[in-house]
Amino acid sequence: MADKATDDVKALSFEKALAELETIVQRLERGDVALEESVAIYERGQALKRRCDELLHQAEERVEKITLDTAGRPAGTEPLDPKDT
User: Fold this and answer.
1) Of 15, 21, 49, 79, which has the highest C-beta tally within 10 A?
2) What are the tens digits of pLDDT across the range 6-49?
3) Could you give the 3-state DSSP secondary structure of residue 73?
4) Cβ count within 10 A of residue 24
5) How many independent structural domains does the chain possess?
6) Which of 48, 60, 62, 44 is closest to 13 using CA atoms?
């Protein structure tokens, strides 16, 4: 069963999830968080990281590269080959 504290992560945009993850990392790096809270925010950070990875993967699948005809004009699109990046 999903933790109630991480359920809302599924609704976050990439930008919001990343911003919150950065805040968590900063708090943990400062070391001024109690142990129990550190564990809780670390777990939330893991959920945020998974959300960012999921959204990046979805975006990657949607990216297409434009193909050009012999005259250099756009001729269509084809799926992006990750080896081309």
Assistant:
1) 21
2) 679 999 999 999 999 999 999 999 999 999 999 999 999 999 99
3) coil
4) 20
5) 1
6) 48
